[in-house]
From TrEMBL:
Pfam families: PKD_4 (PF18911). InterPro entries: Ig-like_fold, PKD/Chitinase_dom, PKD_dom, PKD_dom_sf. PROSITE patterns: PKD, PROKAR_LIPOPROTEIN. It comes from the Bacteria. This is PKD domain-containing protein. Keywords: Signal. Residues 1-24 form the signal peptide. It comes from Arenibacter arenosicollis. Residues 55-113 form the PKD domain.
């Protein structure tokens, strides 16, 4: 090897040594001052989460997984007992006692029930109200097997129709809160609930009506109602629901394999009528589509004649 080549080789080796000596990690003894920092990487499978603490200049790590459990490992693996929304926090501490924290929000194994209630960490429950914007799938239906659209009503329902079109805009303000433990409450802003006109006439003689619809062909109104304390709800993810219907044989209609809500006492969701049970067509993080039945004909009451397919939105 020539002298020129030896000099070139030594130069390359020396550059590599300098590069390696400049690299640093949590365990580095380099004299270079590296600011304390922390970040989180995570990988989730079901309820199991593998965490990785991405830190510089840290000598200890403290994890709070948001469910009451903790760890001092740098890269812990944690299994959550319940699905839900959690905030995991990493606190990294340096040799001089200084510390820095990083948080990450997790959505773990979100079942429909958790989407409905907010999960075990939602201490105030999850609150819903009828969406005034409606959606493409909101419509006035017949209470038949296919919940076919009612010809006399617009399909889909225009935004704000219950207010501008029917004079019942207050129903968009009422709130319904579901808790993970099965408790249930509602806040009727004006002391009256969205209701069926026929139901109110036949059960209260009309005395329970606070605000009749401006177009009574739809058979809707608001009716006075006092929510019951200590109420509960039951969510059935898949069941066969039998309701009364003018379209069903013997006055009954069966909806198979549907998700439903039912309530203790006289409580309800969204609308009060003879049928208090509600079909939940879908529930997502911020929206839920419900089907509420109505007995809109005095000739057939209390058999259901129609249904409202309505979108609810989560109250932020």
């Amino acid at each position: 090897m020539t002298k020129k080549n030896l000099i070139l080789l030594y130069g390359v080796l020396f550059s590599m040594m300098l590069s390696l000596s400049s690299c640093s990690s949590d365990d580095s003894n380099s004299s270079e001052i590296i600011p304390l920092s922390a970040d989180i990487f995570q990988s989730t499978v079901g309820k199991k989460v593998a965490f990785q603490g991405l830190t510089n200049n840290a000598t200890s790590w403290a994890w709070d997984f948001g469910d009451g459990n903790t760890s001092t490992e740098k890269n812990p693996v944690h299994v959550f007992a319940e699905g839900g929304y959690y905030t995991a926090k990493l606190t990294a501490t340096a040799a001089d006692g200084s510390s820095v924290s990083k948080e990450i929000k997790l959505a773990i194994d979100l079942t429909p029930y958790i989407l409905l209630t907010g999960g075990p960490t939602a201490t105030e429950g999850k609150t819903w109200r009828m969406s005034s914007g409606h959606s493409d799938g909101d419509y006035f239906a017949n209470a038949d097997a296919g919940l076919t659209p009612y010809d006399a009503a617009p399909n889909p329902l225009p935004a704000g129709i219950l207010g501008v079109g029917l004079g019942l805009g207050e129903v968009y303000q009422d709130e319904y809160t579901f808790h993970f433990d099965g408790s249930y409450s509602m806040d009727l802003k004006d002391g009256a609930a969205f209701s069926g006109l026929v139901y109110q006439f036949l059960t209260t003689g009309g005395a329970g009506i606070k605000n009749p619809s401006s177009d009574q062909d739809f058979g809707l109104c608001t009716g006075f109602f006092t929510p019951e304390p200590n109420s509960t709800f039951t969510y059935n993810e898949s069941t066969d629901l039998t309701v009364s219907s003018v379209y069903g044989p013997g006055g009954a209609m069966i909806y198979s394999g549907v998700s439903t809500l039912e309530f203790s006492g006289d409580m309800f969701f969204g609308m009060i009528d003879y049928e208090r049970r509600v079909i939940i067509k879908e529930v997502k993080d911020n929206t839920m589509k419900a089907i509420m039945f109505i007995s809109a004909s005095p000739d057939y009451a209390p058999l259901n004649t129609h249904a409202l397919v309505i979108t609810f939105e989560a109250v932020q």
